[in-house]
């Protein structure tokens, strides 16, 4: 059975479950495990280093004109002749959507089965792993995979309860300029890590938040994880935030609990990466209880500590 993934999260879960023998094509954004596979989906933003403002402007203009940021290599897709194509309908900025996929697939001489993966909450993401494995006739593999990840989240919850850890007032930003709150499964990740984000939109799209609203909310912990940005890339834009009026008055800033994190723990919805996100968030919210291991410690930084280290290194 030949599979093509138009969704990085699906690609990641296929590899995590050991089902990559079926994978014949991916997108340009798919994880490093799929580096050697043909890239079927490309993007007009690929290889460019646009700022948050520029990316938002390009997307808004494309949407207003009814155009997509993505395109499909029709000849390459035809040569693979897949049996199954995994796609999504959650975000037309992050990945190619099902409508664009259907348009490309209509041109094929052999029509594959389209399997859209469009989770809204954390449980939906878990269910997506089962959908993927079931499509490949390997449902039992997904159940074993999920059981291991569930054990990790259960251990975090048990530790929070044992230490009577208070809920932390949190904000997680999915974009810097304009500022977007977090939506879909991320508020559930925050809850699983011992926090609550009252500015979030659980099981729904992230939306623009005004800075004045954030100042009034005054989060105890601020997590900056722009979609598509790793820590290094996000650091290039932190100046936008720290120059805003009232930045130094935020409780998170005063208490040195501003964190910058890799996006793939939050807006790349594979079960494994989202569980990593819960582990990382628990360490950010409750550093007195949780210590990140070497794997998790590479995925986020404390902003204040990072800046101090940079200053010290430059002396």
UniProtKB/TrEMBL annotation:
Fe/B12 periplasmic-binding domain sequence ranges = 2-289
Q: Which PROSITE patterns does its entry note?
A: FE_B12_PBP
Note the Pfam families from the entry.
Peripla_BP_2
Q: Which SUPFAM superfamilies match?
A: Helical backbone' metal receptor (SSF53807)
Q: Which InterPro entries match?
A: ABC_transptr_periplasmic_BD, Vitamin_B12-ABC_binding
Q: What is this protein called?
A: ABC transporter substrate-binding protein
Please name the source species.
Pedobacter fastidiosus
Upper lineage is: Bacteria, Pseudomonadati, Bacteroidota, Sphingobacteriia, Sphingobacteriales
